[in-house]
Design goal:
single chain, 620 residues, alpha/beta, globular
Length: 620
């Protein structure tokens, strides 16, 4: 979801053209605990924070036509194009199998290659590996990843070994018989730890964990499980999703490390999901995005992250966000095609989540062999220059973000896209960000099962959220209507709006930060969110994908990413653009990577079994 509150002075226009960067102290340890205590108990301190964050000002741009928009739902336009959407998700999966789409990989990216969903399928089909082999590798690598001086901490809990192996054996037999349930049969998949997964606990990043494992899957989990996916574990996340750095001081979690460079954090809040994909522990993960929670860690970890249109996927079984108006579940993948396949598997109507009942069928013909365009001819991409260049020079390295992203616009032009800048203006971004922050904090505070034993950084958020008034919430709903109109006006001219994914480099792990320390650095937190919130606030789809890798003086590299924000229901075209551009990027190998399709080393003993109770295995 993302940390959305500032503690320092409100910036002048000279500091940042859109006022999106907050100058604030870096808080940790005793200083952070003192700040949390003061804000929780001193009313003037909370009022000051509300003022600094603009919670008293965004109503000034509202007009009489701005009605309160509670949920940013989008009805499918009644056009001829809508009538062509005929393939169901199941039909599309079958088409990939029957028409040998399984053997048609997208154009490979230069440099390092991740194992994709299609790589797993090809290995299973030809017999070079089996789901059982993959599970044995996976369990060994999970233990290895969570040990050492810089543990990855991507996986916080996994299914009992014997139970997971029994699922893998059944999948192996289906592949040998030539009757896999789908492309996801035998594919390891991890879920963010705010979604209910049978046989596993759920805690949403908090210190208190439900005593018994979940008895029912969330809808997005159930849909992948029905297709044979090996649902093996829960991914690390920040407490209630309220941090964009990936820091979580609670004992179940710890601070996740970036596979590309363990001296860096993953970003948040779906920290473990992005780290697991980036480290090769699975080709696909399912996160939840309320203010960049899929896209921020995907950007930091060098993988593809998709935030779908509001209503595209169900939130039933999400203990934090069901009934919320900001969040949406979506895929993180090794490449754009994996995200597309995962979206096809989890999308669609769900009677348990009324927001999905107006969802159109998903049309992924833009990614199939016969109909995919060879370039981006006819695609208009908008650049709001004032916003695009709002990368604040916090340190000497941040200008590289702006330079790299501007240079990559040439790649879009080279693929045939038209880049439009003249007339592309998105007004009131500062006010919309304040309204988004007010909305998401209010919804999280309202859904929290308890306020006991919270981390100091979360206490700060909850203290402010508890003071929001009904008038402020009503104004925020009217601001959402205003913002949706602004974006609809832009989309009359262009198909997408392009931005940097982040306004800064991925977060470096602070010196001296222990595995379970709490930490809050407001300035970079704001920069990581400044391009993220409109897609959530207005219910729009958005995708992030790596475009370059910044070399660190101390060794290693960290990814830089681009974001495309699209019209409602435009996920297939967004993913097509990401797939077409992948071959232009030379990808180095992450420092932490596990090849699950590799043979087990000779003489490797079997993974030790847990007790035969099918209890979940906690890894942290």
């Amino acid at each position: 979801m993302g940390n959305v509150l500032a503690l320092g002075r409100r910036p002048a226009a000279a500091d940042a053209p859109l006022g999106l960067y907050h100058v604030a102290p870096h808080l940790s340890g005793r200083l952070l605990r003192v700040a949390a205590w003061m804000v929780s108990r001193l009313w003037p301190a909370r009022m000051l924070m509300m003022y600094l964050n603009g919670f008293y000002s965004f109503h000034r741009c509202l007009t009489a036509d701005d009605y309160p928009l509670r949920m940013p739902c989008h009805l499918l336009p009644q056009t001829a194009a809508a009538a062509t959407i005929v393939d169901s998700e199941a039909q599309l999966q079958q088409r990939f199998l029957v028409e040998s789409e399984l053997h048609v990989q997208p154009a490979p990216a230069a440099g390092f290659h991740y194992n994709s969903v299609l790589d797993y399928c090809q290995a299973y089909k030809c017999g070079s590996s089996t789901p059982v082999d993959v599970v044995l590798n996976l369990l060994r690598y999970i233990d290895e990843s969570n040990s050492g001086p810089k543990p990855l901490r991507a996986v916080v809990e996994h299914v009992d070994k014997d139970l997971l192996l029994s699922w893998a054996q059944a999948s192996t037999e289906r592949w040998r018989a030539g009757k896999p349930l789908s492309l996801f049969d035998g594919i390891p998949v991890i879920f963010k730890d705010q979604l209910r997964v049978k046989h596993l606990h759920v805690a949403a990043g908090c210190s208190y964990v439900e005593r018994e494992p979940a008895q029912q899957d969330a809808t997005v989990v159930a849909r992948l499980r029905a297709q044979g996916a090996l649902i093996f574990g829960k991914g690390n996340m920040t407490e209630f999703g309220l941090s964009t750095a990936g820091v979580n001081g609670n004992a179940r979690y710890g601070n996740a490390r970036n596979p590309y460079n363990p001296d860096f954090l993953t970003g948040g809040s779906s920290a473990g999901c992005a780290a697991a994909v980036s480290a090769g522990l699975c080709p696909v993960a399912i996160g939840v995005d309320g203010g960049g929670s899929i896209r921020i860690p995907s950007s930091c970890c060098g993988v593809v992250g998709l935030k779908p249109t509001c209503g595209r996927t169900s939130l039933f079984g999400d203990i934090v966000c069901l009934g919320g108006t900001i969040d949406v579940a979506g895929p993180i993948g090794a490449n754009a095609r994996d995200c597309a396949l995962a979206l096809a598997a989890i999308a669609g109507e769900d009677v348990n989540d009324p927001v999905t009942l107006c969802t159109p069928s998903l049309d992924l013909k833009a990614l199939t062999r016969d109909t995919a365009p060879a370039d981006l001819s006819g695609v208009n991409i908008g650049v709001y220059r004032k916003w695009f260049d709002a990368v604040v020079d916090v340190d000497a390295k941040n200008p590289e973000v702006k330079t790299v992203c501007n240079k990559f616009l040439d790649q879009l032009r080279a693929r045939g896209a038209t880049i439009l800048e003249e007339g592309i203006v998105i007004p009131h971004l500062r006010e919309a960000q304040a309204a988004h922050a007010l909305t998401i904090v209010s919804e999280v505070v309202a859904c929290a099962p308890s306020r006991d034993r919270l981390l100091p950084s979360t206490q700060l958020m909850f203290a402010i959220g508890g003071d929001f008034t009904s008038v402020q919430l009503e104004c925020a709903a009217r601001m959402r209507c205003h913002a949706c109109r602004d974006w609809a006006s832009v989309f009359e001219k262009v198909d997408f709006v392009v931005t940097p994914a982040l306004g800064c480099l991925p977060p470096r792990c602070p010196d001296g930060l222990a595995a379970h320390d709490d930490d809050l650095d407001i300035g970079p937190q704001s920069l990581r969110m400044q391009y993220m919130f409109p897609a959530n606030f207005c219910g729009l789809p958005a995708v992030v994908f790596p475009i370059a890798f910044h070399s660190e003086a101390q060794g290693g590299s960290v990814p830089l990413a681009l974001q495309l924000i699209g019209k409602p229901w435009s996920e297939p075209l967004l993913l097509r653009v990401a797939e077409l551009l992948a071959p232009t990027v030379v990808r180095p190998a992450p420092q932490i990577y596990y090849d699950l399709l590799a043979p087990l080393p000779a003489g490797t003993p079997p993974v030790a079994a847990d007790a035969d109770t099918h209890e979940p295995k906690k890894t942290i």
